[in-house]
Each structure stands twice: as structure tokens, then as C-alpha cells.
Amino acid sequence: MRNKWLFIVAISGFFCVAFGAFSAHGLAKTLEPKSLAWIETGLKYQIFHTVALMGLSILQLCNKRFSANKWLNCTALSWVIGILLFSGSLYLFALGVSLSLVWITPIGGTSFLIGWALLSYSCLKKI
């Protein structure tokens, strides 16, 4: 696979559009406003980090020097973990899956922060 991050971007972007439309049109009549707000928050964070990941992927595609950079790959991985844990847990909560996993959401948020810190660090290291 030429760029695994760009593949993940495509999947995540597709999911954002599909689940966003489904929640706006299909779930709006059945879910409480609080649950819809959880979905909206999850989608906002997911699409924001999907776009950031797309930028990182394009940078790696355009410049081979960046494609094998461990800090940029760790950044991308942190954002993907954040999407899965933060946004994913909000979607599950909204759909009524057990709230006993509430500790997953802040771990996902921390993963987002770690990704941004790694990106900052990679810039200081002059990649």
C-alpha cells in the first residue's frame, strides 16, 4: 500500500459523511438531543483530525523524506487512535451502548493531544 494514512483518511471521511447523514436524517427522530450532541461532537473531532491526517498524508506522498519519518507516523497513529477512542466512544454512548466505558473518551482525547505534541516535536527536530 503506497500510503496507509491516506487510505485511512478515505475510510474515515466516508464514515463521517455516511454517519453524519444517517444521524441527521435517520436518528434525529429517535435519539434524545443529548445523544445527537454526542454524535455531533464525535463527528466534529473526527472530521477535523481526518483533514489533518489528510494533510500529513499528502505531505508524505509529495516528499519521500517525510514518508518514513517516525515522528510523523507516530503523529498519524495517535490521531487515528484518537478518532477510534474519542469519536467512537461518543458514537457508542449516543446509540445506547454501555456508559461503563466512559473512561475511553478521555484516552482518545489525550491521544489527539499526543499527536499534536508529536507534530510540534517533529517540526523542532527539523524532520
From TrEMBL:
Keywords from the named record: Membrane, Transmembrane, Transmembrane helix
Location in the cell: Membrane
Topology relative to the membrane: Multi-pass membrane protein
Domain of life of the organism encoding this protein: Bacteria
Transmembrane segments: 42-59, 71-94, 100-124
InterPro entries from the UniProt entry: DUF423
Recorded family membership: Belongs to the UPF0382 family.
Name of protein: DUF423 domain-containing protein
